[in-house]
Each structure stands twice: as structure tokens, then as C-alpha cells.
Amino acid sequence: MMASPESCPALVLNADFRPLSYFPLSLWPWQETVKAVFLDRVSILSEYDRVVHSPSFSMKLPSVIALKEFIPQERRPAFTRFNVFLRDRFRCQYCGEPSPAPDLTFDHVIPRSRGGRTNWENVVTACQTCNLRKGNRLPHQVHMHPKRTPFQPSTFELQENGRAFPPNYLHQSWRDFLYWDSELEIG
């Protein structure tokens, strides 16, 4: 049975052949990919076996594409809950335990009720248990200090952290373009 086009997203690489993002992985649905090919905005680097047809045209669906024009990455990532989790590698900064994103919260090291701000330098990833235990107290009052001092990461640092969390699905043709930390065979 042939895969449906919906199950054939393309890995999108910048003009320098690096993924636009690792987490979430930069993927385009097949329709956007085909449109970009026709508008000559991308180069096809790898293809699926799946072919799509129109009355006058047929083509294999691209599995890896590279943009023809380089898109500079923003130096300062957006301050979002998810990016805080990614900076902290999905680990509670108090107990050190990893958790899936839905089970995590973020904590103000200096509570807002005590003048703490909601920014990169005062917010850390916390599990629900530690967040409740700390409450609105200062770290020294409850002997709960973050494992790492909170900081504003660069986009590059978030990308590097994202590489450690590969998506659930990786098409074989993507592996050469994703630099997952894996041991290479010596031969």
C-alpha cells in the first residue's frame, strides 16, 4: 500500500543545509513543498517513492528540501514557556527530574509577589511537586535553589538543545541532514 501524501512531509533546510529548527523539527506538508518547488524557492535534495499527479504533470514528493535564499535566525529567541523548558532540557531545575512538557510548569525563582519579574533570568522549569513545595517563597527560605542559574539562551543554544530530543518519526532520507549525537561506525 502506498503512503498517502499527508504522510510525506518534507524536511526543510536553510540555504546552509541546516534545519530551520530542530524542536519542533522544520517540516512542510507536501502541498507547501510542491508549491515552493514550482515557485523555484527550494532545491530538492531527496525524494519519497510517492508520486503525485495532475492531468499534465507528475513528480515524486520531495522528502528533503533546501531554501535557495538564506533565512537568518533571530539571535534572541522568544520568551515562551516551551523555550524555557527547552533551555532547561525538560528537567525540573530543583529536583533534576526530566518530564514531558505537559507535566512541567515554570517557576519564578524570586516570586512575583516579592518583586520577581517574568523573564529569562528569573524563570526556571519546575515539576508540579517542586513548584507547589516552593510556593511563593525565596529559594533560601525553603533550601530550593535552581540547579542552573536561569539565563537568556541564544537561538543557537535552543537549537542545540533541541537536537537532543529527536521527533517520534524520522524518515530515512532525513538522517544525513540531522546531526543527532550518534556514534559513527568505524570501518
Automatic annotation (TrEMBL):
UniProt-recorded Gene Ontology molecular function terms: endonuclease activity
Keyword terms of this UniProt record: Endonuclease, Hydrolase, Nuclease
Coiled-coil positions: none
CDD domains (UniProt xref): HNHc (cd00085)
Keyword Transmembrane on entry: no
Domain called HNH nuclease: residue spans: 79-132
Gene3D superfamilies the record matches: 1.10.30.50
Domain of life (superkingdom): Bacteria
Metal-binding recorded as keyword: no
Protein name: HNH endonuclease
Organism: Dongia sedimenti
Species lineage: Bacteria, Pseudomonadati, Pseudomonadota, Alphaproteobacteria, Rhodospirillales
